[in-house]
């Protein structure tokens, strides 16, 4: 049987084609794994001023997009916004909400973390990140001076679309997600008067509470007494200046007064990153942690 012989140039061409094909497949595969970042609309300018609430509402009460930003800026909701004498208002409403609240759009130090929720006590705002990308943000009213919200690392535990407060059985909490089972601390929908007013829980607007309720993961129990895998990490940080003017009032003089940089966020998460990633690995693998 006669052997087929190819010139070296043809063999080289075949090898190059195979290498090119492999690289193309690898590139296609890697691109499919890259998570697309959310494109947010930035306002042309960012500045703030005070306005009389009633006068402002006479002109803007029917503009839902402006109301959404105004409520968040004043750390309040529709019910309590109308009760305020004056409110902080941006000169330009053309941007998305993320540009009016303090958290950065991307945090490189969180790129390996699939999900995490951050609550800033000083700025009374929260942010949820997926692999370092800001997914949700909004206002919160946390624990009052007498009953401060505990700070540090927590994990989402159990959740209930509607439950009753352990402080007062007349308080109905919607979209409640517990983060500290023994103390009964969690985030949920409830009135936002525009300052820390809760009995240690983290109050949210209803749309934000519902989004986090659906997005975060519940714990996995080994039995009635033991946790097998923890839920989504939640980091609460900072201190609120209870005896000073509301922090967001400073935005009138300095629009960046509350801005949180990537390095500041990294400082807050660094002590907890190892535990967060270890639990994440267990959740992804579906394994049981060692005692």
UniProtKB/TrEMBL annotation:
Associated pathway: Cell wall biogenesis; peptidoglycan biosynthesis
Going by the UniProt record, its keywords in alphabetical order are: Cell shape, Cell wall biogenesis/degradation, Peptidoglycan synthesis, Transferase
Q: Which residues form the L,D-TPase catalytic domain?
A: 115-237
Write down any Gene Ontology CC term: extracellular region
Q: Which Pfam families does UniProt cross-reference here?
A: YkuD
Tell me one GO molecular function of this protein.
transferase activity
| Biological process annotations from GO | cell wall organization; peptidoglycan-protein cross-linking; regulation of cell shape
Q: What's the superkingdom here? A: Bacteria
Q: Where is the active site?
A: 188 (proton donor/acceptor), 201 (nucleophile)
- Family, similarity comment: Belongs to the YkuD family.
UniProt-listed PANTHER family: L,D-TRANSPEPTIDASE (PTHR30582), L,D-TRANSPEPTIDASE YCIB-RELATED (PTHR30582:SF2)
- This chain belongs to the protein called L,D-TPase catalytic domain-containing protein
Species for this entry: Flavobacterium tructae
